[in-house]
Amino acid sequence: MKKKVIVGLSGGVDSSVAAWLLKEEGYEVEGLFMRNWSDSTGLLQSDCHWEDDLMFAEMVARKIGIPFHFTDLSEPYRKRIIDYMFAEYEKGRTPNPDVLCNREIKFDSFAEEAYKLGGSFVATGHYCRKEELNGQDKRIFRLLAGIDENKDQSYFLCQLSQQQLSQALFPIGSLTKPEVRKIAADLGLPTAHRKDSQGICFVGKVHLPTFLQQKLHPTKGDIVEIPSSGSYRTWTPGLPGDDISDAELMDMTKPHDHNQLEGMIIGSHNGAHYFTIGQRKGINIGGYREPLFVIGTDTGRNILYVGEGQSHPGLYRKGLMIMKNEVHWIRNDLSMRDGESREYMVRIRYRQPLQKAKLYLREGCMFVIFSKLQRGIAPGQFAAWYDGEEVLGSGVINR
To answer: Does the annotation count 365 as an active-site position?
Structure first.
């Protein structure tokens, strides 16, 4: 008899099929639905609330024939995810709640509830895979990208630990989304044709300024346009050598200082902390040949810097920096030593194609230098590095 698996039934098609696949494999399967957020502030009206998800999750459990449970994790979710979000936005940073939700909730608080039910494993509907290696002293778990390149969600799991991976199962990681939909339709699962959830993990698709106004109050500030002819640094394509100095690395990862560039006030906004680098929506100023994009924010002075067009140099940077205490290795056996440099493929947001980069670990931080200029590097987001299809580690972008 295989061990008991607790599946996080979310009311979506992916977790539904994951539960069915595990039961077919002979596992003792039970479903657990978690309520994490019920406040509708800022939610777009077209989105379903958690009650609808709960109803669908119950119907799926009944259809598959597995026990169903409910747990309320609203308090840890508020403390670990929502409060963190507000704090980060207040600092002018752009957090990624989905990455945090997996580390802090799904594979931590939720996992604890699963173990209370006697579960040996926690399963989710993520499009990623896990492999086990037999090391000399202990087992090593690899986190691999999902087979479906259009749905690969390995980036969202880039902060998991070996302990969390050891007790995780990802049943649909070797399937494509159309295959998952077909299985659900053939089984007559009520979630077969249900739309995928969007927006903030367990909150939904929100109008971000309205959502953030719960704690971050609107404050009028200037919108300053910086011309593309501003004095921006130019960088040679390609990766630097191993002998590059710390001073050069600091220079290559330094954000643009728009305070030092000549700009013109073209309008006003309701709070610089509501915006992120690369954002187009919400600026609400017309009369330009190309759209305006956010190229920088100054939350201290409440200034929003914008530039015209996708190719504005203020949108692009050569590298980024991660503080050493925020560097996380999934594969601890492959972690870098001070003074070491390595080439990996890196992404700084979900769905971004992997980018060639070189990582330099120094005494207090890690520098990530890209072969090509990168658009919209935003402090607070996560950079994740890959070796082929394996996610090795990640870190919070400091600048």
So the answer is: no
